[in-house]
UniProtKB/TrEMBL annotation:
The keyword Metal-binding applies. This is Gluconolactonase. Keywords: Metal-binding, Zinc. One of its GO terms (molecular function) is gluconolactonase activity. The active site is at 195 (proton donor/acceptor). InterPro entries: 6-blade_b-propeller_TolB-like, SGL, SMP-30. GO terms for biological process: L-ascorbic acid biosynthetic process. Pfam families: SGL (PF08450). Belongs to the SMP-30/CGR1 family. It comes from the Bacteria. Signal peptide: none annotated. Substrate binds at residues 99, 101.
């Protein structure tokens, strides 16, 4: 069995939202706490960093070039150099209490962005969607920490997770519109919490198990098919990439860890790669109306 390997000499604070760009064969990700978007080219080892004024919880690449970025207070369009060009909307939550967290695009090229409710006193977070006309709609509520966004290859299902509540949801889609979400997998405390995720071409769901030292692959029926251990406690998200889409990129964090734990697990915050047998499904870029 293949073992996860470190991508390169890098440790962030809270790396999240890895995105593979097939056109340039490069990997993007955000370091939320450092307010940065990173880019790395595996072929030659180049690494670039864009810095923003606020935390970038999630983002997506645009068909027109540049990004759509969900920062703490609002969602913006930005150019390839990170310059903000057009405000899309304010954070539908109170930005003092909830920042944007996990997100990405659906098969129609629309951008989904979820929030994380900081006080953790009730399920105050939400999931919103930005369409091609830059209209923003709140599509789900009753969430504590939005994560795990992924879509089945046939477009019939949307997956999400609520990490603090230890649950993965599956929501039926009717021509892209979500119906009533269903609890798909519930995790017992102490066994890892479902964080960011991706789907492969067989429709299997790969989940980063925060606090669980591993990533897991589940069948569309919810059966555990594979587990891969990591030398760090908290993976945060996965994405597929590489020329054949059979490289799994895994972000991890060192947020809220003591110096003793970081010394014991110095790779916390690194990005790992894992060669897998089944290719990942491509994620479209954000599509804007002509």
């Amino acid at each position: 069995m293949n073992e996860p390997r470190v991508l390169f000499d890098y440790q962030g604070e809270l790396p999240e939202c890895p995105i593979w760009d097939a056109d340039s064969q490069s990997l993007y990700w955000t370091d939320i706490l450092k307010k940065q978007i990173h880019r790395y080219w595996p072929a030659d080892g180049r690494h670039s960093v864009l810095t923003f004024e606020e935390e970038v919880g999630c983002f997506a690449l645009r068909e027109r070039g540049g990004f759509i970025v969900a920062m703490r207070s609002s969602i913006w369009l930005a150019d390839a150099d990170g310059r903000l060009s057009q405000k899309v909307c304010d954070n539908p939550n109170n930005p003092k209490l909830a920042r944007f967290n996990d997100g990405g695009t659906d098969p129609l090229g629309r951008f989904y962005a979820g929030t994380y409710w900081g006080p953790r006193d009730y399920n105050g977070a939400l999931l919103c969607r930005v369409d091609s006309e830059l209209k923003t709609t709140v599509v789900q509520c009753d969430i504590l920490g939005a994560n795990g966004l992924a879509f089945s290859p046939d477009g019939h299902w949307m997956y999400t997770s609520d990490t603090p509540n230890h649950v993965i949801y599956r929501t039926p889609l009717n021509q892209g519109e979500p119906g009533l979400r269903q609890a798909w997998k519930i995790f017992e405390p102490g066994n890892g919490r479902p964080d960011g995720a991706a789907v492969d071409v067989e429709g299997c769901y790969w989940s980063a198990l925060f606090d669980g030292y591993r990533i897991a692959r589940f069948s569309p029926e919810g059966e555990l098919l594979e587990e891969h251990r990591l030398p760090v406690r908290c993976p945060t998200m996965v994405c597929f990439g590489g020329s054949d889409m059979k490289t799994l990129y895994i972000t991890t964090t060192r947020e809220n860890m003591t110096q003793e734990e970081i010394s014991a697990r110095p790779l916390s915050g690194a990005i790992f790669t894992l060669n897998v047998a089944v290719a990942g499904a491509y994620k479209p870029k954000f599509k804007e109306k002509e």
